[in-house]
Specification:
Number of helices: 5
GO biological process, one term: fatty acid biosynthetic process
CATH topology: Ribosomal Protein L22, Chain A
Largest sheet: 3 strands, antiparallel
CATH architecture: Alpha-Beta Complex
Helix content: 25-40%
Keywords: Magnesium, Metal-binding, Transferase
Structural class: alpha+beta
CATH superfamily: 4'-phosphopantetheinyl transferase domain
Protein name: 4'-phosphopantetheinyl transferase superfamily protein
Strand order of the largest sheet: 1-5-4
Number of strands: 5
GO molecular function: holo-[acyl-carrier-protein] synthase activity; magnesium ion binding
Strand content: 15-25%
Oligomer: single chain
Low-confidence stretches: 123-187
């Protein structure tokens, strides 16, 4: 088994809930109908707030994006932060309560194409004795020694203003995407996606691993 990307994200539940409740907030549009319905059902079952469960799902989305970006290495990213179709990356529990990443529409197609290209390049590189160049890099520095998070390339020339808070990326982001039949848990994707969610007290967190044979 080879690990191509690893992503982790932590969400402040109180801050997230506050932004979710802001008048005119479009944050709910970043989730699919199925995600919102499932979060509401879990909140009723657990007798807690919907924001707790949506925060965990948001952490899962962010962690998946980071893992995907790491897997692509120096390659081109298929989306920018302004047009990323967040609702097409669903974090859904199965009948046993186990979370899975389900990709639909544009994200599913882009993931297949981009990761397929990475795997093809890795195979050629390994055959030539060069190893898996650019896959799973843990370097935190970009060109010139500047810090390069997994989002650095996606930000492009319009960095996120830190004064907007930890969820600045969400504001003004596209919240809709065409829906297709592809699923991150199905065998038609070029790599496996594993996700683990946790929410304890004021913090929700997620870890995502993208791997393959």
């Amino acid at each position: 088994m080879s690990v191509y990307g690893l992503g982790h994200d932590v969400v402040d539940v109180v801050a997230f809930g506050g932004q979710l409740a802001e008048p005119g907030s479009r944050m709910r549009n970043l989730f699919s109908v199925r995600e919102v319905r499932q979060a509401s059902a879990r909140a009723r079952l657990k007798n807690d707030g919907e924001a707790v469960h949506l925060a965990a799902k948001w952490a899962g989305k962010e962690a998946f994006l980071k893992a995907w970006c790491e897997a692509l290495g120096e390659g081109d990213y298929p989306f920018t932060l302004d047009d990323f179709p967040w609702s097409g990356v669903e974090i859904l529990d199965d009948s046993r309560g186990v979370p899975h990443v389900t990709l639909t529409g544009r994200p599913a197609e882009a993931f297949r194409d981009s990761i397929g290209g990475v795997l093809a390049g890795a195979s050629v590189s390994a055959f030539e004795g060069g190893g898996r160049s650019g896959i799973g890099s843990t370097s935190g520095l970009g060109a010139g020694g500047a810090e390069a998070s997994p989002y650095a390339v996606m930000r492009g020339s319009r960095p996120v203003d830190p004064s907007m808070g930890p969820y600045a990326v969400m504001r003004g982001a596209s919240g809709t995407s065409p829906r297709g039949a592809a699923s991150g848990t199905a065998g038609n994707l070029p790599a496996r996606i594993h996700v683990s969610l946790s929410h304890d007290g004021p913090v929700a967190s997620a870890m995502v691993i993208i791997d393959g044979d």
